[in-house]
From TrEMBL:
<dbReference type="InterPro" id="IPR020843">
    <property type="entry name" value="ER"/>
</dbReference>
<dbReference type="Pfam" id="PF16884">
    <property type="entry name" value="ADH_N_2"/>
</dbReference>
<dbReference type="InterPro" id="IPR036291">
    <property type="entry name" value="NAD(P)-bd_dom_sf"/>
</dbReference>
<dbReference type="InterPro" id="IPR045010">
    <property type="entry name" value="MDR_fam"/>
</dbReference>
<feature type="domain" description="Enoyl reductase (ER)">
    <location>
        <begin position="12"/>
        <end position="327"/>
    </location>
</feature>
<dbReference type="InterPro" id="IPR011032">
    <property type="entry name" value="GroES-like_sf"/>
</dbReference>
<keyword id="KW-0560">Oxidoreductase</keyword>
<protein>
    <submittedName>
        <fullName>NADP-dependent oxidoreductase</fullName>
    </submittedName>
</protein>
<dbReference type="InterPro" id="IPR013149">
    <property type="entry name" value="ADH-like_C"/>
</dbReference>
<dbReference type="InterPro" id="IPR041694">
    <property type="entry name" value="ADH_N_2"/>
</dbReference>
<dbReference type="GO" id="GO:0016628">
    <property type="term" value="F:oxidoreductase activity, acting on the CH-CH group of donors, NAD or NADP as acceptor"/>
</dbReference>
<dbReference type="Pfam" id="PF00107">
    <property type="entry name" value="ADH_zinc_N"/>
</dbReference>
Length: 332
């Protein structure tokens, strides 16, 4: 059994030195525990915060701790009455070939015709983040112009499609022409901006000629400043994430001058998907219906092999993924 531990705290963008793949015995499930064989594991931007010391909504890992995140896998041994060998479950498990968990800490996965990895993406945490962020936090009106950053990623790609279903004009910001084409040609976004190749503020003047009524922010930093410059009076901003800043040390903390924030009287609201736990089922059911009907489309970027999990994780900060980044593990 192979398992990843945090070798050292990353300095800036993480690299291979920060991760150790160690050999351990396959763990024995204790009373009420299950032994899970990993099929897919999720790498997520928030994990970067767990690698640093200090304040975060996700508790920091200690050096030497096992890395952990959302996993979908097969129960191979069960001491819990709700599960038996062969069941597919998901939970917050260590990055390993095999992991044990309390049966109360995993849930059964039903993905119908879709592969299990969707439980980590469009039907899992990122899909729900998009769902609650759009329906509850941003709550745009039909006809509103909605902008989303990291638009071709796991959360952003669903955000834009939900806003379209709501009758909004949707503009996505992403880091390559291929991603922008995906947004406009496949996902039905009205416009896309490749921030690597364009001045975002100038491009927005064209893509959002009536200004921005709602902004779903996944990235923070300069892109967000450019969007703020186009906010309309009483605009709404949902702050979902700030990936552009996750590898920076010494970022100025706290509210600073944001372009036009005072003038527009915009409402800027952070949110955490975890707060919506009592409504997860509602979100997953609705997302599953939209996926079934074709109203919500999705892509996944799959890295093969547990040993490639760190690269897949680092790739998130380099925009290597389209849609949800997962790692296929499937040990013998
Ligand atoms: P994604 O699938 O969107 O992957 C991250 C993407 O971010 C990359 O593909 C890349 O796309 C983009 N990116 C990376 N670095 C930068 C940068 N410096 N500037 C601009 N874009 C960058 O990840 P997720 O969908 O899982 O997460 C998206 C955001 O949502 C993250 O900020 C995450 O922390 C947050 N989040 C928040 C939750 C909450 O409860 N509040 C829950 C889940 C996620 P590109 O090629 O376009 O640069």
């Amino acid at each position: 059994n192979r398992q990843f531990v945090l070798a050292q705290r990353p300095d800036g963008v993480p690299d291979d030195e920060d991760f150790d793949l160690v050999e351990t015995d396959v763990p024995e499930p204790g009373p009420r525990e299950v032994l899970v064989r990993t099929r897919y594991l999720s790498v997520d931007p928030y994990m970067r915060d767990r690698m640093r010391e200090g304040e975060s909504y996700a508790e920091p890992w200690a050096v030497g701790d096992a890395l952990r995140g959302a996993v979908v896998g097969e129960v191979v041994e069960s001491n819990h009455p709700d599960y038996e060998a062969g069941d597919t479950v998901t939970g917050n498990l260590v990055w390993a070939d095999y992991a044990v968990a309390d049966g109360a800490d995993v849930v059964a996965v039903e993905t119908g015709d879709l592969r299990d990895s969707v439980a980590l993406g469009v039907l899992g945490m990122p899909g729900r983040t998009a769902y609650f962020g759009v329906t509850d936090v941003l709550d745009p009106d039909p006809g509103d112009t909605v902008v989303v950053s990291a638009a071709a990623g796991a959360v952003g790609s669903v955000v834009g499609q939900l806003a379209k279903l709501n009758g909004c004009r949707v503009v996505g910001i992403a880091g390559s022409d291929a991603k922008v084409e995906y947004l406009t040609d496949d996902l039905g976004f009205d416009a896309g901006i490749n921030y690597a190749d364009a001045d975002v503020a100038d491009a927005l003047a064209e893509a959002a000629p009536r200004g921005v009524d709602a902004y779903f922010d996944n990235v923070g930093g300069d892109i967000t400043d450019a969007v703020f410059a186009h906010l309309n009076v009483r605009a709404s901003v949902a702050v979902c994430g700030q990936i552009a800043l996750y590898n920076e040390e010494g970022v100025t903390m706290g509210p600073r001058k944001l372009p036009r924030l005072v003038e527009t009287r915009a409402r800027v609201e952070g949110f955490l998907v975890g707060d919506y736990a009592p409504r997860f089922e509602e979100a997953s059911e609705r997302l599953a219906q939209w996926v079934q009907s074709g109203d919500v489309q999705f892509r996944e970027t799959v890295a093969d092999g547990l040993e490639n999990a760190p690269d897949a994780f680092v790739g998130l900060f380099e925009g290597e993924n389209v849609g949800k980044q997962v790692v296929r593990v499937e040990a013998e």
